[in-house]
Amino acid sequence: MLKISHLLFPLLVTLSLTACKNAPEYTTKTVDRNAIIDSTITSFKKKLLEKQIDSVFTKYDFNGSIAIFKDSTELYRKENGFSNFENKAKINDSTIFAIGSVSKQFTSVLVLLQMEHGKLNIEDKVSKYLKEFQTKEYENISIHQLLNHTSGLNTLGGKLLFKSGSDFFYSNDGFNTLGKVIEKVSGKSYDENVQELLSKVGMKNSSTGNTFKGKNFASAYLGNKKNAEKIPNMPKRLSGKEIGIPAGGILSTTDDLHRWNNALYGGKILNPETLKKFVLKSSERHHAILGKMGYGYGIMLNIGKPTTYFHSGYIKGSPSLNIYYPDSKTSVIILSNIADEAKGKGYIFRPHLEVKKITDAIENTVTDLRKQMIKPDKQNEL
User: Fold this and answer.
1) Mind listing the pLDDT tens digit for each residue in 289-315?
2) Confidence grade of residue 382 (pLDDT, cut at 50, 70, 90)
3) Going by C-beta distance under 8 Å and a sequence separation of 6 or more, which residues neighbour residue 35?
4) What secondary structure letter does DSSP report for 159?
5) What 8-state DSSP symbol labels residue 141?
6) Could you give the CA distance from residue 221 to residue 73 in angstroms, rounded to a whole number?
7) 16, 37 in Cβ contact below 8 A?
8) Are 125 and 138 in contact (CB under 8 A)?
9) For residue 270, how far is the Cα from the chain centroid?
10) Are residues 373 and 37 in contact, defined by beta-carbon separation less than 8 angstroms?
11) Is the dihedral angle over the CA atoms 128, 150, 194, 316 positive or is it negative?
């Protein structure tokens, strides 16, 4: 991979100076010059992303969809391969994918919305709401601990792996339990709660595996393009005990996840103080593929720069990654529908990891460069 800072700096400076030099006299005011810098950086980010992300598609013959947006501006989009290998239906911008554990942030938000409605407190014991938690083993588990995977719960009904609150263990059953809590306090099914949330955000092409009735679903496959084995009973199987809808059963598109990111982090769903709780690092995860990271409520956090909120997702044949950079309001969404499990998850997620490394590097470099390019203006105003 090219050293992004070496590539960006001379070109950005040249482009910015040229833009300012050729602009009308009134645009030398700070606000106008800043707008020119922003426009220049956005334009160049598009070119750089095209070059870098296209190389990922080529390198891995990536079968899926990658879309990148800065607020409402599309910076990059590409689809490649088939949503159905039997009839050779091609992936397009309307293709609906299973997003796996990216679903967990929807469950977390639903819990926090119930908190805002006064229906629960995240420090409440789960036993307050569910009889199966009224045991000596589970009685001290809190909603907070389920949200950030510190409950010690692995499989529901089994012994705790550690004292609740003392460590981290990623638990799908923990999030399926949160789905039951949501149903208990709201008086509605989890599916109904999700559908109301999706409708509020305008995610018209998203649903749960239970409620999907549309078209354009990307069937999930194991293997490779030459030997693709279709996963049966998709997307209905997402509601089974192996996965569970609250833990990993939502279906979506790149455009809908972009809407979700903008609405969620733009403060259109949760109150500001609640959103802070959602993204606050309250535990730490050592991910086998993505490495060491912070964990909030159903969301992962970069340790170090750039500030990043993200989550991976995987159910058989469907690896996904949803990334949001709050400082630049940039969404990076990577969805796929085939995975060669014989080569391991490290191999399956190589394209996703490489894209994240690219976009992390671009975010860091552009942030630094923008500071350098704006700084002279502030000095001139003194």
Assistant:
1) 888 999 999 999 999 999 999 999 999
2) very low
3) 27
4) P
5) -
6) 32
7) yes
8) no
9) 17
10) yes
11) negative
Report yes or no: 278 and 112 within 8 Å, Cβ to Cβ.
yes
Distances (CA, A) of 264 to 64, 308, 327, 328: 25, 14, 14, 15
Query: What are the tens digits of pLDDT across the range 271-291?
Result: 999 999 999 999 999 988 888
User: What pLDDT does 369 receive?
Assistant: 77
Q: Which residues contact 280 (CB under 8 A, 6 or more apart)?
A: 296
**Helical segments of 119-171, H only:** 143-147
Q: Which of 69, 84, 54, 53 is nearest to 255 (CA)?
A: 69
In 136-208, at which residue ranges do the beta strands (DSSP E only) sit?
Answer: 207-208
Bridge partners, 78 (sequence order): 66
**What kind and span of H or E run contains 286?**
strand 283-287
* Residue among 234, 224, 2, 233 at smallest CA distance from 96: 234
Place of tokens 């008086």: 187
Rounded alpha-carbon distances, angstroms, from residue 121 to 132, 189, 259: 19, 20, 28
Give the closest residue to 260 by CA, choosing from 208, 307, 205.
205
* Region at 317 (left for phi over 0; alpha for psi -120 to 50; beta for the rest): left
Q: Which helix or strand (DSSP H or E) is residue 231 part of?
A: none
H-state helical runs in 23-82:
30-60
Please state the rounded mean pLDDT for residues 258-266.
98
Average pLDDT for 239-245: 94
**pLDDT range class, residue 26, cuts 50, 70, 90:** very low
Average pLDDT of span 142-151: 98
Q: What SS3 state is found at 244?
A: coil
Distance CA 374, CA 169 (A): 44
